[in-house]
Structure formats: structure tokens, C-alpha cells
Design a protein that fits this description.
Length: 205
């Protein structure tokens, strides 16, 4: 005689245990969705992938190499850094950021009443996610060039810059706008070697 199959009560208990595991895993997710591994990847992102209207979704940080990531404490360190810099982003008004990337390789970033414009282009011949941004304030004041890295997952993109250069850019804008700068976050961000920081962007509705 074959062994008796599981009873309906046993199956029900198994389903309940499985549901509890799923809920626990979901609850353990970090509050900021932008970060997962925290390592710069060689993504096949080209200029056309940026074209469109975007809005700020969350902070994002990445490390330039696996060695630097491990030195900082592994992938979990990225989530910790994001939680720490989120309040500084809010004070600086970055949470209101909107971005427009045009087919003619010009862009416009808006934070409250401040608008940054400029051009963007691939850093090399291949679409590997590495870009060069030329920034201008009030459409004519040069703010310099910055290398950037772009990753795309689903409908979202992460745009990250060398941390020290992004701080300098935001601080320059803050002097003009009167908004809070990221200077208070500089010590934190500069304490990590090879750190890039920026933001995750979602398509604007």
C-alpha cells in the first residue's frame, strides 16, 4: 500500500510557512531601491537609452572596482551609504530633481528653481554606460566636464558621478541658489575610495 499523501491540513501549514518566509524577505529589503550590488558594471547603455523625461527616485552609489567595494565593507555598505546621504539630498533639494535628455545630445536638469543644461556623449566609441557631461548654469555659465556612468534596469536608470566632483557641482549651484549644499556630506562621501554617487531616475509620468 502506498504511503498516505499529505493531508489538507499539512499542505495548509506548509503554505503558511512559505508565506511567512516571503513576507520576511520583502520586509528585509532596504528602504531605497536604487542600490543592489553597489559595483559599477559594464552596461550596454548608449546615448539613446537616456533620451526622455525622468524624475528623481532615490539616491544611488557605486564603486569603481570590486576591490574598492570590498574594502568599503561589501555590497551591504552601499545600502548604508545611501541611507546616510538621503537626508543631505533632501536638504539640498535633489529629491525634486527632474531631467530631460534630448535626441540632439543636450540635457536639462532642474532642481527647484535652478536649471542646469549642457551636452552629454559617450566617453568612447562603445555603448558601455560611460559618458561625459558638460555642465552649464543659466544656459551659459560653464561648470566643467564630469565623467558619469549609467546603468539601466527595466524602465529605470542610475546616473552616478565621481563623488567629490558631484559635491563640488552641487555646492557651486548652492552658492547661487541659496539652497543647502552637500558640504556636510563631503566628509562621509570622501571617506570611501573609488565612490561614485548620484541618483536613480524613473520615467516621468
Amino acid at each position: 500500500m502506498p504511503p498516505p499523501g499529505p493531508t489538507s491540513q499539512t499542505c495548509s501549514k506548509a503554505r503558511q510557512r512559505k508565506q511567512r518566509v516571503v513576507r520576511t524577505t520583502t520586509a528585509a529589503q532596504p528602504p531605497f531601491p536604487a542600490l543592489a550590488e553597489g559595483l559599477l558594471t559594464s552596461s550596454k547603455v548608449g546615448e539613446d537609452d537616456l533620451v526622455g523625461n525622468w524624475r528623481y527616485n532615490a539616491p544611488a552609489v557605486t564603486f569603481k572596482s570590486d576591490n574598492l567595494l570590498q574594502k568599503a565593507g561589501g555590497s551591504a555598505a552601499s545600502g548604508v551609504i545611501v541611507e546616510k546621504i538621503a537626508p543631505y539630498y533632501e536638504k539640498a533639494g535633489i529629491t525634486s530633481l527632474t531631467a530631460t535628455f534630448n535626441q540632439d545630445r543636450t540635457f536639462e536638469l532642474k532642481v527647484k528653481k535652478i536649471t542646469l543644461t549642457g551636452t552629454y556623449a559617450l566617453a568612447g566609441d562603445e555603448a558601455n554606460g560611460d559618458f561625459v557631461f558638460n555642465f552649464k548654469a543659466v544656459k551659459k555659465l560653464p561648470l566643467g566636464k564630469m565623467n558619469a556612468h549609467v546603468d539601466k534596469v527595466g524602465s529605470k536608470i542610475t546616473l552616478t558621478f565621481d563623488a567629490s566632483k558631484l559635491i563640488k557641482l552641487v555646492n557651486t549651484v548652492a552658492q547661487v541658489s541659496g539652497r543647502a549644499s552637500l558640504q556636510s556630506a563631503a566628509k562621509l562621501l570622501n571617506s570611501y575610495d573609488g565612490l561614485n554617487c548620484g541618483f536613480e531616475l524613473s520615467p516621468a509620468q
